[in-house]
Amino acid sequence: MLSTKLRLGFGFLLYLVSATAPMFAASPRVGEAAPDFSLRRLQGGAVKLSTALAKNPVVLVVLRGFPGYQCPFCNRQAQDFVRSAKSFAEAGVRVIMVYPGPAGNLEAHAKEFAEGKGFPDGFDLALDPGYQFTQLYDLRWNAPNETAYPSTFVIDRQGVVTFAKISKEHGGRATAVEILRALKQEAR
What we know:
Blueprint: H1 4-20, E1 38-41, E2 46-48, H2 49-53, E3 58-62, H3 72-83, H4 85-90, E4 94-101, H5 106-114, E5 123-129, H6 132-136, E6 151-155, E7 161-166, H7 176-187
Parallel strand pairs: 3-4, 4-5
Antiparallel strand pairs: 1-2, 1-5, 3-6, 6-7
């Protein structure tokens, strides 16, 4: 028979888990609604997911942002997507790249990241100071010198995730070709 202290301990643990469960979001999965968000764009103004979806499906790319340096994998992925900008435009999607990091100097780091990439129309670089978006999407990478799990989502005009890829390492990210292929299959 369990001792009174042990039963109370288990009871408290169950209470704690049930009371805090809503605080822990899960990353959106294929077939689920993508949580709405509003972030400030590096280009000025704000980007709100629900407003963007009113016009076009969205390709949402979550970068590592600034973990203390400019991530070479993020640079390659952003350049890959920018090189395919014409194909994304032809597919009728908007690309939103989220750049997370600590609030201090995030904008300066994002400007450094964007330098020379020539983000075209239909591409936004959105800032996530303090990781509010990253936590909403349950993508916070809480290891030393980390920020967010690199992730890519395709979200249809109804706000439903039709593609999701979350990498638990620096590489292993979605490529522009992979996303464009997914968009073609979705259009069928």
